[in-house]
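Supplementary Text 2. Reproducibility record for the structural model of the 306-residue chain.

All settings were left at their defaults, and a single model was retained for analysis rather than an ensemble. We include the record here because the model underlies the residue-level annotations in Supplementary Table 4.
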Amino acid sequence: MTSAAPRVLGRVPAVLAALARTLEGYARLVRLHRPVGIWLLLWPTLWGLWLAAAGRPHPRVFLVFVLGVVLTRSAGCAINDYADRRLDPHVARTGDRPLATGQVSAPEALLVYAILSLLALALVLTLDALTITYACGGALLMAVYPFLKRFFPLPQLWLGAAFSWSVPMAFAAETHAVPQLAWLLFVAGVLWTVVYDTMYAMVDRADDLRLGVRSTAILFGEADRLVLAVLQLLVLAALWLVGRQAHLGGWYHAGLGAAAVLGAYQQWLIRAREPAACLRAFANNAWFGLAVFAGILLDYQFRGLG
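Retained model, structure tokens:
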């Protein structure tokens, strides 16, 4: 026992190093080092929560949704990389992903996806039956999305539904109903997702064409910038209608004005369709979502004080 102790202790650093590498691979699998996806999923969630609760969401519901966003986005990354594990090594932007390099195995990715999904489900089960029902639909949308890119020409539209599904969920959790306002905000979220994820897909367009992967960037072709500009205007129009239905005022419209400026900046970034600039335009949408939320937050905060 005594002679074996030094040998056991000598293996500890190696075991800890292997554990650290494994955990680092899992963290990269769920994109913890790239949190922009969390923000893009979070903003429509907060839009919905604040509008459903007239500016005063229930603290428990707020906490469940924020944690749920982190878990859902992380789970979505894991299942996405599993679905793309044979494609990612051949794409310049994704060649260093853990599944592509072998740092994480396919069964491990599925296990991470399952654990995160179960944790998200456990959170949702603390809410009412209507919200749970909508959550099941959202989980299906998120799980199916990664496999659509092989045959569906508009996968970004499906992703938009998955990323915006938190809006009707938020209304269900706060009001136990999903009114017309929720669906109008949902449509705005879907269109917005198509905008920013098309910018994201423009980065990989050459590789996707070579590999036979479908995307709206490929579908729109040379008309991509024009189509995106039209969609950006439709997003702003839908959000303006949301404000009108919710009786939001000057602060909200100031937020929409800031969002419009950011949209114009994104158009400037993608003017030459240069991949790095398109990636910056994609990431800039986190600020777009913040601008809209800031308008909602401030409008409710200062309502009746003027």
